[in-house]
UniProtKB/TrEMBL annotation:
Organism lineage string: Bacteria, Bacillati, Actinomycetota, Acidimicrobiia, Acidimicrobiales
Species this protein is from: Iamia majanohamensis
Protein name: Uncharacterized protein
Keywords: Membrane, Transmembrane, Transmembrane helix
Membrane as UniProt keyword: yes
Biased composition (Basic residues): 183-198
UniProt KW Membrane keyword: yes
Region described as Disordered: 144-206
Membrane spanning residue stretches: 20-42
Biased composition (Basic and acidic residues): 151-162
Length: 206
């Protein structure tokens, strides 16, 4: 048993609340339900497959591995009541407060793929923004928008190869139409105007 535990990093067993939570004043502005929702989200998403980590130098002789970005996650009502002993209403009110402070971001997802005819049910995915906790709360309260740190698993496969118009949802012109247009411009030649012929001067009559 001891050898099995020694093979794992003890930091992996528990979620870690960033030290900026205290150093940057977040403990003073968040309500108890918001702190509870934050801890629950950290516990659900901490060290999940694909979580980004980065080596941070605390001092010249100490480098620790810090979590850079967390995954999107959805917590069902059963999970909230069974695993965390909190109601959906209390959790949602805490999450909404965190969203107002930019500490958490949300997005809607469909439980049924769009290609099927079944009725889609929408649910909300949440993600803790650690970069906001590492920002002073006074800056966020003053209207500062903290740059978003994306998770490595967020880009869809092949997004890096698409152009800027495709990423914005703008359909590129059809390849056939574009090739025909290019062919026309290449084959089109300007018609040269024929220069008028110079008249021969007539010899003076005797």
């Amino acid at each position: 048993m001891g050898e099995q535990n020694a093979a794992h990093n003890p930091a992996d067993y528990y979620s870690q609340l960033d030290r900026g939570f205290w150093a940057n004043g977040w403990i003073a502005v968040l309500s108890a339900r918001a702190v509870a929702a934050l801890v629950i989200l950290l516990d659900a998403t901490w060290m999940q497959a694909g979580t980004d980590t980065v080596d941070e130098e605390v001092r010249p002789d100490l480098t620790v591995k810090q979590v850079k970005a967390l995954r999107w996650w959805h917590l069902t009502e059963t999970q909230l009541t069974r695993d965390y002993q909190i109601s959906r209403d209390m959790f949602d009110r805490g999450v909404n407060e965190l969203i107002e402070w930019q500490v958490v971001e949300s997005r809607k997802r469909a439980s049924v793929p769009r290609t099927t005819w079944a009725e889609r049910r929408w649910y909300r995915e949440l993600r803790v923004r650690l970069e906001v906790l590492r920002t002073p709360v006074a800056d966020v309260a003053g209207g500062r928008r903290v740059p978003r740190v994306a998770h490595s698993s967020e880009p869809e496969p092949g997004d890096e190869k698409l152009g800027s118009t495709a990423r914005r949802g703008i359909a590129p012109p059809p390849a056939g139409r574009a090739s025909r247009a290019n062919a026309k411009t290449k084959t089109k030649t300007k018609k040269k105007k024929a220069k008028p012929k110079a008249r021969k001067s007539e010899a003076p009559r005797g």
